[in-house]
Amino acid sequence: MNFHRAPHIFVGKVNLKVENLERSLAFYQQIIGFKILGRKENKALLTADGRTALLSIEQPENVTAKQPRTTGLYHFALLLPTRSDLGSILQHLLNSGYPLQGASDHLVSEALYLADPDGNGIEIYRDRPSSTWEWNDSEVVMATKPLDAEAILAEGNGKPWTGLPSATLMGHIHLHVSELEQTENFYRNGLGFEVVSNYHNQALFISTGRYHHHIGLNVWNGIGAPSPLESSVGLESFTLVFPAEEAREQAINQLREIGAAVSKENQDFITKDPSGNIIRLVL
Hints:
The chain is of the alpha+beta class.
């Protein structure tokens, strides 16, 4: 899991808007296994280790249901430490009866897919050792194959599920965007990511430090898909963690050079990608 610490740039926390905070808290605690780190009347911070917030959920005033065919969140992805942890949570999900939307072997990782009660997509995955990943020059080899669920359950070895392991990380985020050319320029020449996979010119996977991806970007909701209403359930923003002030300053200068707006809020800097997805640049 060295891809989620300095000197890399990685996703730290995802901030979601939900229709019903109590319903979402029940789901994220009982089904996903988060703990509450802090709570206000209409907002809660969720953690795996009791110290670091990985997810924020908020019920805004006048919130509206999730809008289809818009830009925003495709899924956020929780990275588990081991394959046995994936087996344990798979058994828990099967026992709970909560519906899975998919389960895939991506060669670099093994993943489960589901959605929260508002339709926000979630991936729960474990990485194979990076030494086993195959590369074609600068592109990592990934695929979507059936998951060997029986082997993963056996790896779990009946270990009782007690919630998310404390070493769980926000592994990556995958976004719906309205187009790919300007988006690639923003994330590459602005934020400093590298493209590590181009999926049939429909999706880009980008990272720093040759991770298989810290961010996925797709046009599966249609070229020119609009941004959702501000009141809509879905992604409010996500954070990108920089290793040092110098690295963040470099990214801010690069963003401004390509014409992207950057503003400051308290100690954080905020920008938007060309599709309106809000990114908080943090240390």
